[in-house]
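Figure S7 source data.
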Amino acid sequence: MKAVAAHKYGSPDVLNLVEIAKPLPAENEILIRVYANGVSKADVAMRRADTLLSRLFLGLTKPKASITGTLFAGKIEAVGSAVTQWQVGEDVFGETATDFGTNAEYLALKETATIARIPANMSYEEAAPIADGAITVHNFLTRVVEVKPGMKVLINGASGGLGTSAVQLAKHLGAEVTGVASGDNLDLVTQMGADHVIDYRTTDFTKGNVKYDVIFDLAGKLPFGKAKRALTADGTYLSPVMGLPVLIQMMWTQRFSRQKAKFSATGLLPHDQLREGLKDITALIEAGKMWTVIDRTFPIEQIRDAHRFVEKGGKRGNVVVTIDHAEPARAAAE
Ligand SMILES: NC(=O)c1ccc[n+]([C@@H]2O[C@H](COP(=O)([O-])OP(=O)(O)OC[C@H]3O[C@@H](n4cnc5c(N)ncnc54)[C@H](OP(=O)(O)O)[C@@H]3O)[C@@H](O)[C@H]2O)c1
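Tokens for the predicted NAP complex:
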């Protein structure tokens, strides 16, 4: 079967299309025929592995897992003899986090992995990115901090993969939402439901008078030291971008400050917790409260171009990678 392999860290040129054996599911595994996956900012960061901190998880000198990709959506083709939760023919999506391996025609996963049924109103392409953006912002906005009705929430980086989901979810939770992005992308942020938008190229919101209960820095461009000027006295700064400063601020503010800094690595949470999150998100999608924004779709043969596109910045929502199979895919969402 076709798959994408990377045997070293570096530019998109480390990604190569290779032929490998199709996996056979073990007795507690399901075999998924993958129709779509995605290239996220996190996939790009893991391909580069620029920091020592990231290499502690991924492999010190080269990737521990050579087949790339963390997101998937597809159809169950076979189940092992001990599998009880899944059936052949079901449409599923999810993520493999640091186990990787989704940029491939087939994927064998334990039945207890981070897997959920695709909502009836979604295509494979729309489902694949959910386990990046929607699941991450669900973790941050409902567990790391509990957003309540009436709270003022600012999303810094509101037009990207995580931002488009964060605006939708924060609105659903009843917050007054401000989205920060640039230029034409501000229209998209308004379409997602933001009450206010700010262009970071012309306005520094930390110099204004408005104080926010939550500032979610998806862009990774706003240090806690600056963000806290625009936080309420008990406000929370959220960062999904791993780095030593935020880990130190998290420990410091936990003990010594009413204003908190918080980080979480969503992909490293236990599978059952992530599955709970996917169940909540699926219900919101089926109720029409959340949806996936797709900027561009690339066939798997153009995986290097997909990585280059994400790496240059400026994407609106998500980037999806598709895989053709002789077997017909499910019908796209109406
Ligand atoms: N910890 C976790 O669990 C976890 C999980 C998944 C992803 N992540 C991380 O989350 C981050 C966000 O990912 P993403 O897919 O949402 O990225 P993205 O799609 O590239 O979006 C970036 C956003 O930041 C905005 N932006 C750029 N420069 C800015 C600035 N100076 N000030 C304010 N906004 C600015 C962009 O707007 P314009 O395009 O208009 O400039 C865009 O809205 C990545 O670093 C990723 O690795 C963390």
